[in-house]
Design goal:
Length: 190
């Protein structure tokens, strides 16, 4: 019952957001609606404020992936000029769920596809989210046209890009992301 109510509320908010998405209040509504509909993000823990088409996100989440996903959702919302990320990852919650971002070089793998570093874990999903977020933040990369798949720290890039320079830049960005072991570039030019 609660899920149905949330879906109806999300749909109503999305319809309303489409109609008034260029105003600050419309942008705020659109971002909140998208956050509420996303399984990775716990929207009730994230505050959304918009001024002059700049969205400020603040609050606490339990994983780095949730933080990165919230920022990506806000950036992808129509009318958003910029996103200020003031979201905090609660390390205590993350430590109990086993989803803390990696901070050391020593790595090992478990059967679930998580990269472990000095007792901390970064999941393949978190790596994928981080790479996509960096693509979306970089104007020289068509982040929406590049698919990112991660398996045991190996990132595979596929999709279409405008030039070899863009493909190379995407590979470099992915290679520099935390937790990435190898990048396989399958991007097509054209």
């Amino acid at each position: 019952m609660l899920q149905r109510f949330a879906m109806v509320l999300s749909t109503a908010g999305l319809v309303m957001a489409v109609g008034c998405s260029q105003s600050d209040s419309g942008i705020t509504t659109a971002v909140k609606t998208k956050l509420a509909a996303d399984d990775t993000v716990k929207a009730s823990e994230i505050n959304v404020d918009t001024g002059r088409n700049i969205v400020t996100l603040n609050g606490t989440v339990d994983t780095q992936a949730a933080k990165e996903r919230a920022v990506m959702i806000a950036r992808d919302t129509k009318g958003v000029a910029n996103v200020v990320d003031d979201i905090v990852v609660d390390r205590e919650v993350a430590a109990t769920t086993g989803t803390v971002e990696q901070t050391a070089d020593a790595k090992s793998y478990d059967i679930s596809g998580k990269v472990e570093a000095a007792g901390e874990v970064i999941t393949d999903a978190a790596i994928t989210s981080a790479v996509k977020t960096q693509f979306l933040a970089d104007p020289g990369v068509s982040g929406l046209k590049i698919d990112v798949d991660t398996n045991y720290g190996v990132v595979v890039l596929s999709g279409n890009v405008k030039s070899q320079a863009e493909a190379d830049k995407a590979s470099a960005i992915a290679r520099q992301s935390r937790g990435v072991e190898t990048v396989i570039n399958q991007l097509q030019i054209g």
